[in-house]
Design goal:
Layout lengths: L2 H5 L22 H5 L12 E5 H18 L2 E2 L9 H9 L5 E3 L2 H9 L4 E4 L6 H13 L4 E6 L2 H13 L6 E6 L12 H13 L3 E7 L11 H20 L11 E4 L5 H8 L6 E4 L11 H5 L15 E12 L2 E4 L14 E5 L11 E5 L4 E4 L10 E5 L12 E5 L9 E6 L3
Parallel strand pairs: 1-16, 2-9, 3-4, 4-5, 5-6, 6-7, 7-8, 8-9
Antiparallel strand pairs: 1-10, 10-11, 10-15, 11-14, 12-15, 13-14, 16-17
Length: 420
């Protein structure tokens, strides 16, 4: 990665474009403002912050877990779209960065990411022409895409031929599942796609992949059994294609979000002469909702669970009814698609975890807090846990990093720049 490009983010001028940044930072660079020693008290609401202690713990925990399991990690960068966090993941030993679409790839290339796995199929002719030029200009750039139909193979090949591609694009044949998302439905269909790739001179068969998280959404026995069944089919496909892969590098088998990576290791890590690549991305921030409940590290797959590094901060602006308070953070500020924010504590006051206080709804700019009683008067600032980090980062272009969200007066030690 281009360390100088990431370091240069500290020279960005702060102003009204960044809603997390207070007015007294305007006109200063990130570096200059951080040098003033800002604290949480100086920041307004609504707000989303990251906890440096939790981030560091999550990075080390996942890196150690993958090393012990003998698998590579290409964390999904779409979770954060934050080059500084990608750099931290790569420095911790990650194999590369996974992304979801062409605009995200362009951000990664702007910051010098040299190994990218696209967990999607790239069919845009203009995008494929740009990719071909990137591959031709940089022999060290390693790129792998997905394909899930013979038609997508044909369209990619035609576009790359038209662009005069000099290097073949490496692809993984994507296996899906009934009711899931993309991916060939069945091993036989996937094998036909692999045969089409072998006939396309602009493509190179690099392995197989897919996403088990599209097939289950819980850790029940049925959910885990569904995931295992899918992973066994992925291993069967890989075995079917043995002997067709190029022999200058081990083939790739890639699966694994942040919910079932333990099962991926159990089913795929022992495949002979194969590079097993996890793509977990949410682990770096984790959460206090969906992932807290389903993570493998709370199901016995590790010694220390991940910690929630994301917190929302919102102020009580109205108490129109005895058991109703309105907060100044809503859908524009906090994730809500996979669980509502969780009241944790009143800043400088009462603990709310374990009480009857709860968020029952979000509007665009308000949260409905119910049953907090007298614990949350008008003007009180609440710390909120959030669920689903993938839809949290995209709402903020600058996210303050606190030394510890549990400290009496947290210090701002960094600003994470996102690019969505």
């Amino acid at each position: 990665m281009d360390e100088a490009a990431v370091a240069a983010l500290a020279d960005e001028l702060l102003d009204w474009r960044f809603k997390a940044v207070p007015a007294d930072a305007h006109g200063r660079t990130v570096r200059e403002w951080l040098a003033t020693g800002p604290t949480l008290t100086g920041l307004g609401t609504p707000l989303l912050t990251l906890d440096a202690t939790a981030l560091d713990h999550n990075l080390r925990t996942m890196a150690d877990w993958c090393a012990k399991a003998g698998v590579a990690l290409a964390p999904h960068g779409k979770t954060t779209m934050a080059p500084a966090l990608w750099q931290a993941q790569l420095a911790a030993g990650s194999h590369g960065i996974t992304l979801a679409n062409l605009p995200q790839i362009r951000v990664a290339r702007a910051f010098g990411v040299q190994r990218i796995l696209l967990a999607n199929t790239l069919l845009d002719p203009a995008g494929l022409a740009w990719l071909a030029a990137e591959l031709a200009a940089d022999p060290e750039f390693a790129f792998v895409s997905w394909v899930d139909s013979t038609e997508s193979v044909r369209l990619m090949d035609e576009a790359l031929r038209a662009a005069g591609a000099e290097r073949p694009v490496e692809v993984l044949v994507e296996l899906g599942g009934p009711g899931g998302r993309t991916g060939a439905r069945g091993v036989d269909a996937a094998a036909e796609i692999a045969a089409a790739v072998l006939r396309a001179p602009t493509l190179r068969l690099a392995g197989v992949g897919g996403y088990e998280g599209a097939l289950a959404h819980d850790a029940t026995d049925d959910g885990l059994a569904t995931v295992r069944g899918y992973l066994k089919a992925l291993a069967e496909l890989h075995d079917r294609l043995a002997g067709t892969y190029p022999d200058d590098a081990p083939p790739i088998v890639s699966a694994g979000g942040s919910a079932y990576f333990d099962l991926v290791v159990e089913e795929l890590a022992d495949l002979p002469d194969t590079l097993t690549v996890l793509r977990s991305g949410a682990y770096i921030a984790h959460d206090d909702g969906f992932y807290r409940g389903v993570s493998p590290l709370v199901r016995g797959a590790g010694d220390a669970p991940f910690r929630g590094a994301l917190h929302g901060w919102a102020r009580v602006v109205s108490r129109p009814e005895p058991q109703l308070a309105l907060l100044d953070a809503g859908k524009r500020d906090l994730p809500f698609d996979d669980g509502l924010p969780e009241p944790q504590r009143v800043r400088g006051g009462a603990e709310l975890t374990g009480t009857s206080a709860r968020i029952t709804a979000l509007n665009d700019q308000h949260a409905f807090l119910r049953d907090a009683g007298d614990l949350a008067p008008v003007g009180a600032v609440l710390r909120l846990g959030v669920s689903h980090p993938c839809t949290a980062f995209d709402k903020w272009t600058m996210i303050p990093v606190l030394d510890s969200a549990d400290a009496p007066e947290p210090r701002v030690t960094g600003l994470v720049r996102t690019f969505f």
